[in-house]
Amino acid sequence: MLFRSEQVGLVYLVDNSTSLSVDAEKLSKQSGRLRYLPNHANLGIATALNIAARRALQDGCELLLTMDQDSLPAPDMVARMLTCRERMAGQCLGLLAPFQITPAQQPTSHLPEFQTVMTPMTSGCLLELAAYQAVGPFRDDFFIDFVDNEYCLRLQRAGFAVIRANQALLRHQVGDLRTYGPFVATHHGP
Question: What is the pTM assigned to this prediction?
Answer without folding.
Answer: 0.84
